[in-house]
Amino acid sequence: MTVSPPPPPAAPVRPLAGLRVLDAATFIAAPFAAGLLGEFGAEVIKIEHPAGGDPFRRFGTMTERGDSLAWLSEGRNKASLTLDLRKPQGAEVFRKLVAGADVLCENFRPGTLEKWGLGWEVLSAINPGLVMLRVSGYGQDGPYRDYPGFARIAHAFGGLTHLAGLPGGPPVTPGSTSLGDYMSGLFGAFGVLSALRHRDATGRGQQVDIALYESVFRVLDELAPAYAYTGAVRGPEGAGTLNACPHGHFPCASGGWVAIACTNDKMFERLARVMGRPALASPEVWGTTARRLAERAAVDALVSAWTGALARTEVLALCHAGEVPCGPINAIDDIFADPHFQARQTMVTLIEAQLGAIVVPNVLPKLSETPGRIDHLGPRLGADSGRILGELGLSEAEIADLRAQGVV
After folding, report:
1. Which of 36, 60, 217, 269 could make an SS bond with 281 (beta carbons 3.0 to 4.6 A apart)?
2. What is the pLDDT tens value at each position of the chain, 408 positions in all?
3. What gap in Å lies between CA 13 and CA 34, rounded to an integer?
4. Where is the signal peptide (predicted)?
């Protein structure tokens, strides 16, 4: 007798299942917030202009499909609906969508949606429980509210760029990454979840106002209180940091680099032992943070001489054995080869019908009982327009008419 194998266990219901999120934003910040919600179960409808869609589709390395790798990664788990919000018919369809939505994410310049008759007062009257995430360069109020803003501008205005680079050199953007966008998306997702908890208790939605520069400013540790308390203006500190030593980047004989972070005296004592120079950690030499900071150049030079005489693998092995915080400065090829990235599944491979295997960052955070997941990569422009409009009650003839008019 043939026995059928037991069916595979059902995937756990994700914690945000049942929520409908409208992503009417472009590029990274607000769409990233919507994408995070989608990874944990929310239905995310990406609303894009019919003529080309989100410009992020053409940002970065392009593929044969006509969309960028950046879009394939960050458009994950979203359905694509094309809709011109500037046209009355498009605005009407949008209002119907809002009536059945839980969250709206947008990042137009303040006042743009109001100009189209789709501002908060209008939408919240349609749906009093709506949570509306609004991301902009400078926020919804203040004298700079109308200025355009991107992550690079936020890094500069928020105080991060001034801290980056070598003393006496030009200011740089750390990693030339859209850090401010991604941080704003994280703060935005947190704000949305907080507002939804309030909505579930009271029935009332609210606006979540995120300024890109404020997300950057929020993570600059003691910069604001230190200036207010001491008047000190921190400047670029290169590979080091103002408050700890040795705490920076050190070359190795193999040509690679390591980061070492001795944030307190105990950590330096461990490093001194690893280096075979335990006497360096005595109070009379460099055993206190104050002494090491006073002689930072000498400390860093000695550590650099030690690491520079060893291959990077040797430095890492010695520091790990001695419990010294030390890690390799990885390029992306190092990351792809690293067994820890592999063991933690920090990256995941998905199959795109036309392109084949595409590697993208995996879902964060990791939940033990109801983990998030990536169901699919970024969709083609308008791939779900017919289905979504049909669910709103529009007939095929009505949808065809909207297409003919360039509304969808």
Report:
1. 269
2. 455 555 566 778 999 999 999 999 999 999 999 999 999 999 999 999 999 999 999 999 999 999 999 999 999 999 999 999 999 999 999 999 999 999 999 999 999 999 999 999 999 999 999 999 999 999 999 999 999 999 999 999 999 999 999 999 999 988 878 999 999 999 999 999 999 999 999 999 999 999 999 999 999 999 999 999 999 999 998 888 889 999 999 999 989 999 999 999 999 999 999 999 999 999 999 999 999 999 999 999 999 999 999 999 999 999 999 999 999 999 999 999 999 999 999 999 999 999 999 999 999 999 999 999 999 999 999 999 999 999 999 999 999 999 999 999
3. 18
4. none
Asked if residue 113 lies in contact with residue 140, where contact means CB atoms within 8 angstroms, the answer is: no
Question: How many C-beta atoms lie closer than 10 Å to residue 395's C-beta?
Answer: 10
Q: What topology does CATH give the domain 247-329?
A: formyl-coa transferase, domain 3 (3.30.1540)
Rounded to a whole number of angstroms, the CA Rg of the chain reads 26
Q: Active-site residue numbers?
A: 181
